[in-house]
Amino acid sequence: MSDSPPAPRPEARSPRGFSDRRGPDALAERRIVQALAPVYERWGFEPLETGAFEYADALGKFLPDADRPNEGVFALQDDDDQWMALRYDLTAPLARYAAQNWETLPKPFRRYAYGPVWRNEKPGPGRFREFWQCDADTVGSDRPEADAEIIAMALEGLDALGLGGGQAVIKIASRKLVNGVLQAAGVDGQAQTLTVLRAIDKLDRLGTEGVALLLGEGRLDESGDFTRGAGLGRPGIDAVLSFLSVPADGERGAVLSALDPIVGATPAGAEGLRDLQRIDQALKAFGVGASARFDPAVVRGLEYYTGAVFESELLADTRDDKGRPVRFGSIVGGGRYDGLVARFTGQEVPATGASFGVSRLAATLRAAGLDGAAAARGPVVVIVFTDEDMGAYLAAAAELRAAGVRAEVYMGRAGMKAQMKYADRRGAPAAVILGGDEIAAGQVTIKDLDAGRAAAAAVADHEAWKSQRPGQFTVSRDHLTAAVLKILE
């Protein structure tokens, strides 16, 4: 007999940033995709599925350098020593696919895609290392109307998710307008440009005064840490602040009129204004009103986007499990990116698209109390008493399923009380009881669990509740399906 100690048992734990989802949580993400896909298809977009892995060099800006392939992405070496990485998003695979198949594709190429993506970065509220996205993109059109189409379609997607009626608003800006204000402010060089963009991106958090400091010499925060600024002079700071001070809650045409004297004299700014004017006209043709606004402060991913950019946040109050306010960020965003396919071909191919962060959106809806899947009903549960009557239980469940009702036969070996608790934990709307007496009499007892829960909440005395048996009734066996359907209605 061996005296060696037993091997240590591994601790059952999930890696940080990776979540297990069951029941309502898994259904919430599935229903988001099921709501968005028909919208994309109505607008003429076709599905495209690509593999989870891409060669690491195809991920472009997401790979810091060839010597650190695991920074930002999850990568491994293939048997031919090439680095492969789990896809960081759904756009890089699209660019690779378009470049690889451009000669045979219809142009423009309009596709939608959904699925998991992976990022090797620090998790946070609504920010995971593995999460789902659902995208739609047009590759091969430089028309501003293509941008407007993506925006209008994203709004229709939000409406399909039950977020119409002003619960979410899409804010639109343009990299060209930002380039215009950078020209007007005398910004010079890539390093200074990035510092200015990062300062603008902090407007919501730091306000005008904080941004002004970051545009100038720098800012000392409450902890004593100093952030070096962009080094702009007073005229340059005023130009950027004037750009950011244009009200974003007005009519789109009025916003453009207010921006014209600030950036209209610069080549980039004038081009950006023309693009947004055409986007405005197209949105009006689509019937899109105040749910899409022009907001100069949107600087989403401007190192990546080349023209129009947009994003949307849920306007409802969002709180974590402890009731504390929490901000999840953008639930849908996108814009024009005309340089991505050129990484492969050397030829610029215009493209524009939108991405719904499915996992973040599900978490945001849950935090806002708008998670419809959380109230999703479980299956009707058929209670089991004896092995001899198993055929009757299976037949009852099969009959309900044939009528489109989710139903299951209890497959454990517990007694009646435990089975009822099981049905309750499953969120079952009803339990079907076919005891020996019911079978002999050609009857079935149905317990309306929703009605029972409501009645139980109003009855203080437990014995009174037991005697009343709220929500429980008996019908003839051939009325089983009709009775259950009535409960579900």
Task: Give an account of the 3D structure.
This protein has helices at residues 23-42, 91-101, 144-160, 175-184, 190-201, 203-215, 234-244, 252-263, 267-285, 342-345, 358-367, 390-402, 416-425, 436-441, 449-458, 462-468, 480-488; strands at 46-47, 53-55, 75-77, 83-86, 109-118, 130-139, 168-174, 218-220, 226-228, 292-294, 308-314, 332-336, 351-357, 380-382, 407-409, 430-433, 443-448, 472-476. The chain is elongated. The chain has 17 helices and 18 strands. The chain folds into 2 domains: 23-373, BirA Bifunctional Protein, domain 2; 378-488, Anticodon-binding domain (Rossmann fold, 3-Layer(aba) Sandwich), CATH 3.40.50. The N and C termini lie far apart (65 Å). It has an 8-stranded mixed beta sheet with strand order 1-5-6-13-12-11-7-10. α12 links the parallel β14 (380-382) and β15. Residues 62-67 have low confidence and may be disordered.
User: Which bin fits the share of residues in helices?
Assistant: 25-40%
Any idea of the CATH topology of the largest domain? BirA Bifunctional Protein, domain 2
Question: For this structure, what is the CATH class of the largest domain?
Answer: Alpha Beta
Quote the average pLDDT.
87
User: Which word captures the global form?
Assistant: elongated
Give the class from helix and strand content and strand pairing.
alpha+beta
Radius of gyration: 29 Å
Distance between the termini: 65 Å
Using DSSP, what is the number of strands?
A: 18
Please, what is the CATH homologous superfamily of the largest domain?
Bira Bifunctional Protein, Domain 2
Count of individual helical segments: 17
CATH architecture of the largest domain: 2-Layer Sandwich
Walk across the major sheet and give the strand order.
1-5-6-13-12-11-7-10
The major sheet is characterized as: 8 strands, mixed
User: How much of the sequence is in beta strands?
Assistant: 15-25%
Oligomer category: single chain
Into how many domains do the coordinates divide? Answer: 2
The parts where pLDDT drops under 50 for at least 5 residues are 62-67
